[in-house]
Amino acid sequence: MITHVGVVGAGTMGVGVSQAFAARGFRTTLVDTSDETLDRARAAIVRDRRFAGMLGSASPCAPQEVMERLSFTTKLEGLADAGFVVENVTENMEIKRDLYRALEDVLPGECVIGANTSAIPITRLGSFTRRADRVIGTHFMNPAHLKPLVEVIRALHTSERTLRTTLELLRAIGKDSAVVEDSPGFVTNRVLMLTLNEAICLLDEGVAAAEEIDRLFVRCFGHAMGPLATADLIGLDTVLYSLEVLLREFNDPKYRPSTLLRRYVDGGLLGRKSGRGFFTYDT
After folding, report:
1. pLDDT computed for residue 220 by the predictor
2. pTM above 0.70?
3. CATH 1.10.1040.10 spans which residues of the chain?
4. Residue 176: count of CB within 10 angstroms of its CB
5. Residues of the chain whose pLDDT is less than 50?
6. Half-sphere exposure in the Cβ direction for 186 (13 Å, CA)
7. So what's the pLDDT on residue 61?
8. Which terminus of the chain is more solvent-facing, meaning fewer CB atoms within 10 Å of its CB: N or C?
């Protein structure tokens, strides 16, 4: 029975994933490389839980209980007794490879690694370990603690036991699952990244303003937010990395990132997390 869950990477996704587990009674350890990043994550989780309390969230425990179940560390050794680890680090193959090899020396033998990647094939991530049968894709949507469904990716070597363990764990935190086979970008991001990129191209070409592009998708198609606001929420750097992975994996020019997207990322305009992307946000 899994009682301790690790979350590696304390960015936007790590903040959401860690509180999703802690709010459902799991002892949860959030790991990142710097205390500064962990301090920001802690503050973000406190803010989220207070906000949820104000809205009368259906979370089965009080905000203080959530924080008591969470621990924050820069040491992977904090995961030495974890039964499941969700990996959320940046979409960089070299960084992920080094992390998976380091986790190999720390995690218990039966521990499952859930890769929360945007586009990198899960089979390739599994090849960085000696436990490819215990590596599976767990693609949480942002914000991870609120979105009800997780895209679960079965890699080439993922065992039925690993799949069953993952689905049971997600059910335990109130998440539904959609199981798909391994392919770059999976289902969601293979479609979504094309949409976001094309919307950015339209903006760059002057076909319409950002507000009008998004309003068309919200008002005409019933989307909760438009593609440019969605890109800002995901993080423009993550969108760029994802498109680069898709372009490299499929060798298809339809995935070529917009010049405007590259310019925004080069200029540090990353969306909500930087305070400005296609729209401006309070930080």
Report:
1. 98
2. yes
3. 189-274
4. 11
5. none
6. 26
7. 66
8. N
Of the CA atoms within 13 Å of residue 43, those in its CB half-sphere come to 7
CA–CA dist 54, 211 (Å, integer): 30
Secondary structure (H, E, C), the chain: CCCEEEEECCCHHHHHHHHHHHCCCCEEEEECCCHHHHHHHHHHHHHHHHHHHHCCCCCCCCHHHHHHHEEEECCHHHHCCCCEEEECCCCCHHHHHHHHHHHHCCCCCCCEEEECCCCCCHHHHHCCCCCHHHEEEEECCCCCCCCCEEEEEECCCCCHHHHHHHHHHHHHCCCEEEEEECCCCCCHHHHHHHHHHHHHHHHHHCCCCHHHHHHHHHHHHCCCCCHHHHHHHHCHHHHHHHHHHHHHHHCCHHHCCCHHHHHHHHCCCCEHHHCECCCECCC
Using one digit for the tens of pLDDT, what is the confidence trace for 147-173? Answer: 999 999 999 999 999 999 999 999 999
Phi-psi region of 165 (alpha: psi -120 to 50; beta: other; left: phi over 0): alpha
Name the CATH superfamily, with its identifier, for domain 189-274.
N-(1-d-carboxylethyl)-l-norvaline Dehydrogenase; domain 2 (1.10.1040.10)
Q: What is the CATH number of domain 4-181?
A: 3.40.50.720
Residue 206: CB atoms within 10 A of its CB come to 7
Instruction: Delimit the CATH 3.40.50.720 region(s) of the chain.
Output: 4-181
Nearest to 6 by CA among 29, 35, 38, 25: 29
pLDDT of residue 63: 78
Length of the chain: 283
